[in-house]
Amino acid sequence: MGEKEEKKMEEEVMKYTIKDSVFTSVFKEKKYLLQLYKALHPEDKEATENDLQDVTVSNVLVNDIYNDVGFRVGSTLLILIESQATWTVNIIFRALMYLVQTYREYFKETKQDIYNSKKLKMPKPEVYVIYVGDRKTKPEQISLSKEFFGGEEVCLDLNVKMIYDGNTGDIINQYVTFTKVCNEQVKIHGRTRKAIKETIRMCKDRDVLKEYLERKEQEVVDMLMELYDQEEVMRSYVQSEKYEAVEEAAKETAKRMLEDGTLPIDKVAKFANLPIEVVKEMASLQSV
Questions:
Q1: Which of 63, 200, 208, 246 lies in the 20 to 30 Å Cα band around 173?
Q2: This prediction's pTM
Q3: For residues 165 and 176, what is the distance between their CA atoms, to the nearest angstrom?
């Protein structure tokens, strides 16, 4: 590979979905999923990988929900929503929709009919959000009732347990550390392949997800570089839509001024904040 091609690869954009992708990829492996469960339930000394059943739901409501982790251990259903760099209590609704979809799949799997008079059997739910953004206040949990109905008793409620750092060395703490190292490297190198490589190197040196990163380093790099940058695409789309809306409004203003005929073209262009060539073309079309 030549220097030019290598430089081009270094400048490739690193995707915003990096942390969520690693989050999902790590916990697809049962040994890490077991570590996750034991970090949440250290009192359970007996659970093994064979006791874990993955119930992760993909593409609920088109693409509104993705990269979350769901699994069952005995009579408990655990759902972990992807880490949120931007704080929003709207995550409660995401968790609620995920929970409903998971139960639908469970009833289908166990051949239970919700329209039957027989009482349904279902695992007890636990819902978590791992949050890695910067925030001064860190509530232990957030609830539908408190956040949206002032704490009033309502017919439907959902409590979401918040996780910020985990305990030193556990799998949650390692994941959070990975995201923080990643953010630091992005600030230095931008969203590039170099930022990813540096993140992996530093995490291995710090014994953070070391075994996973050593075994899947190239796969992780490729995965992160190939993922669609949904956030950036959406941002570009919104900016484009805003620009088009502003431009259309400016053209409409210029059109009315040209129809009035009281100002010269250069003044119309200046007032409407449009290139004079655009206004000249508009004027020529009006005169046809």
A1: 63
A2: 0.71
A3: 6
pLDDT at 239: 57
pLDDT in tens, 242-265: 566 777 888 888 888 888 888 888
Please, what sign has the CA dihedral across residues 133, 136, 140, 144? Answer: negative
